[in-house]
Write a structure and sequence with these properties.
Chain A: Keywords: Cytoplasm, Cytoplasmic vesicle, Endoplasmic reticulum, ER-Golgi transport, Membrane, Metal-binding, Protein transport, Transport, Zinc. The complex is a heterodimer. Chain A is of the alpha+beta class. In chain A, 31% of the residues lie in helices and 21% in strands. Chain A has 21 helices and 29 strands. In chain A, strands 8, 9, 10, 11, 12, 13, 14 and 15 form an 8-stranded mixed beta sheet that branches. In chain A, strands 2, 7, 16, 18, 19, 21 and 22 form a 7-stranded mixed beta sheet that branches. In chain A, strands 26-25-27-28-29 form a 5-stranded mixed beta sheet. In chain A, strand 5 (93-95) and strand 6 (102-104) form a beta hairpin. Chain B is built from 9 helices and 2 strands, in the order E-E-H-H-H-H-H-H-H-H-H. Chain B has a two-stranded antiparallel ribbon. Chain B is elongated. The two termini of chain B are 22 Å apart. The chains are: A alpha+beta, B mainly alpha.
Chain lengths: 777, 244
């Protein structure tokens, strides 16, 4: 091996460790771990300096500290004291590493010295969590919004799941119930007497104020001279609709048990009248009026699409099907724009108040996730999609919303805000993930917006330990400007949130990377490339663009970036494709892009609009490992020839004497090769002398079960074999798609280098190499 | 949590295509926070890029060691033909004890019939007595309506048990629950109630919330109230009695 190759391999191995350690400690994965020192060089690297960040990454070894963080006193900085700061222990002064302001330590730090450092200055606490309790803790709120236009079996199963969930809620949580069908009912949860409810027409749009008045949440007789409503002294006492679960659990259990199907008869050939839009508007309005700026979850359960009132997605005539992609591309989706706009407005209102909205949609047909997805995407709420409420997929997914960590504390967190500070040579272009902009002004904001940009602060109303944002940066140093003093750039992530135990906490992560001159150190920069993180980061960009651009444009853009990257970093002789090689730090990247292009995130025509929304929803919030699985499913092979091993996601990996386990994140597929299937059918596993075969059959099942036990949402589980109808799940991933819809047969433009669509990995790689080495490109 | 309470049921294939299996509450909580045994996260680069003829081998999670390829194409390799190796399936298959492959979770159909008799058939009166002991203690300080509501549900529980509508696992676990209650292990009792309502909601859904409330109220009581004269009397008057 040539010296350069060997050095690269060693460097890469070292970087692998570095990358992993940093992810374990700080929840951060950068596309590049050595940063190009000028803007021009950064653009030439193709993949921007960017990162995946998991604000609440599980850190069982990190004990929180019980004091307030120390902030830089400069008004437009406010960075938190961290291990990168210079400290003068004698003078009790620290220098902010972002703005260089010198700040005195607070009086409580009088005793610090270089042998008695506060935790936040120690390098191992690059990530540290503060517990800050200001004022009385606010309870968490769970508002159930339940569709009653369900089949009897489904309604019964849903009722039972809801009753069960009362035992899973945090004990002091407030709980509320709204049911809807043709009308919308807000249930009063008193501890005694007859259950009362307030009924609203499902067609009439009401303002937030009107809703609050009709629910008696404002008291006109007690209002002051200007007619403003009296502020409730203790919302928990005065709000009859949101009561502590430990007080109302018995009554609510009975109430849920007595829920009936929507009584409005559904004529032949019609859909039930579902007033989802109004129901949600009442839920959002109720929370707005009673508990603004407190952690709250609206959990909406629906068994079909909204069919009346604002936000309707389809009419009640069954002969008019719900919109398909075909309808959408032909501009034939009557309700799409209006409904999307309606839910978008609701989503933004909820986000402003720090409230999140979950959607649990169980039906055989589409339910309108395309129109409603912003409700969850903007607020960090979940979307679960199943066939029926009486399935393990729904029941367990729902149970896992309430899952607890190793400390026995709920994983869900509320009311999150993320603020990012950067050293002067970097600016923030934006974020892609389940967040909204807080529109904060500041010196670190780049003019080039990517994703949710124009800000360095975002709100994430609901988050979990796996919630991950992609953050995009811009290097602003001018070309040929000297490398900044100290040689390192820094980024600080400050996440404030409400823990499920109602404590307010602040987690601070401060990271740094070295600057490098791209002219002289390009090989080092190349070794620092994190191809896994970069694939996910670019994929999120692609998906973000796909929401507003035409599909083929996104594919063209993706291809262009890939070709440019290969031209920059590939080793080859001009015009000689067979000479093309990529170093190890990039060798997996083209394959990721190949699979991304074929994935349901970008190839929408193989799935319904709702399914596509569902897949994309999960893709832009998951952590790196899960996101990669979604882009390029994992494929492991089990056989008698050796231990289980990963194999190429290619049809060549399907062999008669192998069992394959494929994980696409949304499905787990166990595929038995032809010979294995025959042996299984013959029952060899039952015979004691073929115990090994039994073990072989069980091995992938056990590995799959480990995944099934913890993944959220619960995936589908497919046990299939050669010739089985369900084998198509595997075959469609490994083979070029035969049914690909070439509605947009592009590649007709001259001049623009493109990769051919719809081919095998082999052919794709050949095309890529040809284009990368071409001197005409 | 007993081993019996760690199980997997098949999914509902009639209502959901490829519905995944359903894990019991015990299995799910055991998995949380536990490190992954076999992280499946390795990939293989395409040979065209690295110049190497074969893909990089991945992790070796499971314990199967290499074996000789099958000589009989119609049958899988027979254990008897394999060279000796650390894996437990060794020599002659005379029903010998198999040491442990990865712990198999038995897939159990939920078929325990409500009226099955075993030698440790729990007695409903034991359970009811203990529950009433707690309820009596609560009546001093907890609102009357709440206590009556709890009592109503305890009665429902008792009736369901006596008319054979509760399966054996539910009955067995209720015994465990009241034992924890008696020992003032509130968290343990609470956890059992949670496991029961998750695993058996259709059987317990109507009355379990009463037990839940009972645990919650009892744990907040002044401990002296748990041993007043009338409370102890209610324990003594039970015919089966309870040995401490």
């Amino acid at each position: 091996m040539r010296g350069v190759e060997w050095r690269k391999r060693v460097a890469m191995a070292t970087y692998q460790e570095f990358i992993q350690q940093n992810e374990d400690r700080d929840g951060v994965r950068f596309s590049w771990n050595l940063w190009p020192s000028s803007r021009l060089e950064a653009t030439r690297l193709v993949v921007p300096v960017s990162c995946l960040f998991t604000p609440l990454k599980e850190r069982p070894d990190l004990p929180p500290v019980q004091y307030e963080p120390v902030l830089c006193s400069r008004a437009n900085c406010k960075a938190v004291l961290n291990p990168l700061c210079q400290v003068d222990y004698r003078a009790k002064i620290w220098a902010c590493n972002f703005c260089f302001q010198r700040n005195p330590f607070p009086p409580s730090y009088a005793g610090i010295s270089d042998v008695n450092q506060p935790a936040e200055l120690m390098p191992q606490f690059s990530t540290i969590e503060y517990i800050v309790q200001r004022g009385p803790p606010n309870p968490l709120i769970f508002l159930y919004v339940v569709d009653t236009c369900l089949e009897e079996e489904d309604l019964q199963a849903l009722k039972e799941s809801l009753q069960m969930s009362l035992s899973l809620l945090p004990p002091n949580a407030l709980v509320g119930l709204i049911t809807f069908g043709r009308m919308v009912q807000v249930h009063e949860l008193s501890c005694e007497g007859i259950a009362k409810s307030y009924v609203f027409r499902g067609t009439k749009e009401l303002s937030s104020k009107q809703i609050q008045e009709m629910l008696g949440l404002t008291n006109p007789s007690a209002s002051g001279p200007q007619g403003r409503p009296a502020a409730p002294q203790d919302p928990a006492v005065t709000c009859r609709f949101l009561q502590p679960v430990h007080k109302v659990d018995m009554n609510l259990t009975d109430l849920l048990g007595e829920l009936q199907r929507d009584p409005w008869p559904v004529p032949q050939g019609k859909r039930p009248l579902r007033s989802t839009g109004i129901a949600l508007s009442i839920a959002v309005g109720l929370l707005e009026g009673t508990f603004p700026n407190t952690g709250a979850r609206v959990m909406m359960f629906m068994g079909g699409p909204p069919t009346q009132g604002p936000g309707m997605v389809v009419g009640d005539e069954l002969k008019t099907p719900i919109r398909s992609w075909h309808d959408i591309t032909k501009d034939n989706a009557r309700h799409l724009k209006k409904a999307t706009k309606y839910y978008d407005a609701l989503a933004n209102r909820a986000a402003v108040n720090g409230h999140s909205i979950d959607i649990y949609a169980c039906a055989l047909d589409q339910t309108g996730l395309l129109e409603m997805k912003c409700l969850s995407n903007l607020t960090g709420g979940h979307i679960a999609m199943g066939d029926s409420f009486n399935t393990s997929l729904f029941k367990q997914t729902f149970q896992r919303v309430f899952s607890k960590d190793h400390n026995g504390e709920f994983r869900m967190a509320f009311g999150g805000t993320l603020e990012v500070s950067t050293s002067r040579e970097l600016k923030v272009s934006g974020a892609i993930g389940p967040c909204v902009s807080l529109k904060a002004k500041g010196p670190c904001i780049s003019e080039n917006e990517v994703g949710v940009g124009g800000t360095t602060q975002w709100k994430i109303c609901s988050l979990s330990p796996s919630t991950t944002l992609a953050l995009y940066f811009e290097v602003v140093n001018q070309h040929n400007a000297p490398i900044p003093q100290g040689g390192r750039g820094a980024v600080q992530f400050v996440t404030q949130y409400q823990h499920s135990n109602t404590q307010r906490r602040i987690r601070v992560t401060t990271v740094a990377r070295n600057w490098a001159d791209a002219q002289s150190q390009i090989q080092h920069i190349e070794s620092s490339f994190d191809q896994e993180a970069s694939a996910v980061i670019m994929a999120r960009l692609g998906v973000f663009r796909a929401e507003s651009e035409e599909g083929p444009d996104v594919l063209r853009w993706l291809d262009r970036q890939l070709i440019r990257l290969c031209q920059k970093f590939g080793q080859f002789n001009k015009d000689d494709p067979t000479s093309f090689k990529l170093s190890e730090s990039l060798s997996l990247y083209p394959q990721f892009m190949f699979h991304l292009r074929r994935s349901p995130f970008l190839q929408v025509f193989n799935n319904s609009p709702d399914e596509c929304s569902y897949y994309r929803h999960h893709f832009v919030r998951q952590d790196l490992t899960q996101s990669l699985i979604m882009i390029q499913p994992i494929l492991y092979s089990y056989s008698f020839h050796g231990p289980p091993e990963p194999v190429l996601l290619d049809s060549g990996s399907i062999l008669p004497d192998r069992i394959l386990l494929m994980d696409t994140f949304f499905q787990l597929v166990i595929y038995h090769g032809e010979t294995i299937a025959q042996w299984r059918k013959a029952g060899y596993q039952e015979q004691p002398e073929y115990e090994n075969f039994k073990h072989l059959l069980v091995a992938p099942v056990d590995d799959a079960q480990e995944i099934l036990q913890t993944r959220f949402p619960m995936p589908r589980y497919i046990d299939t074999e050669h010739g089985g109808s369900q084998a198509r799940f595997l075959l469609s991933k490994v083979n070029p798609s035969q049914t690909h819809n070439n509605l947009y047969s592009w590649g007709q433009e001259t001049g623009a280098p493109i990769l051919t669509d719809d081919v095998s990995l082999q052919v794709f790689m050949d095309h890529l190499k040809k284009l990368a080495v071409s001197s005409a490109a | 949590m007993e081993a019996k309470d760690l199980y997997i049921k098949p999914g509902n294939q009639e209502r959901g295509w490829n519905d995944p299996p359903q894990f019991s509450y015990g299995l799910q909580t055991a998995a949380q926070g536990a490190p992954k045994r076999t992280p499946l996260n390795k990939r293989v680069p395409p040979p065209q890029l690295t110049g190497s003829p074969c893909p990089v081998p991945g992790d070796f999670p499971s314990a199967t060691a290499p074996m000789t390829p099958p000589t009989n194409p119609l049958a899988p390799p027979c254990s008897m033909n394999t060279p000796p190796r650390p894996c437990p399936v060794a020599a002659p298959p005379l029903g010998g004890v198999m040491a442990t492959p990865p712990p198999p979770f038995p897939v159990v159909e939920h078929t325990d019939s409500a009226s099955s008799q075993s030698e440790n058939e729990p007695d409903v009166d034991d359970v009811v007595t203990l529950l009433n002991w707690a309820l009596t203690a609560c009546r001093h300080t907890v609102k009357k309506q709440v206590c009556n509501d709890v009592a109503k549900r305890l009665k429902l529980f008792e009736d369901m048990w006596k008319s054979g509508k509760l399966s054996l696992p539910v009955r067995r676990r209720m015994i465990g629950l009241v034992q924890e209650l008696k020992s003032c292990n509130w968290d343990a009792a609470d956890e059992i109630h949670r496991a029961l309502i998750v695993d058996h909601v259709n059987e317990v859904g109507q009355w379990m919330v009463g037990v839940k409330r009972l645990i919650a109220e009892t744990r907040n009581l002044n401990p002296d109230l748990l041993h007043t004269q009338e409370v102890d009397q209610s324990l003594d008057t039970s015919s089966a009695g309870n040995s401490d």
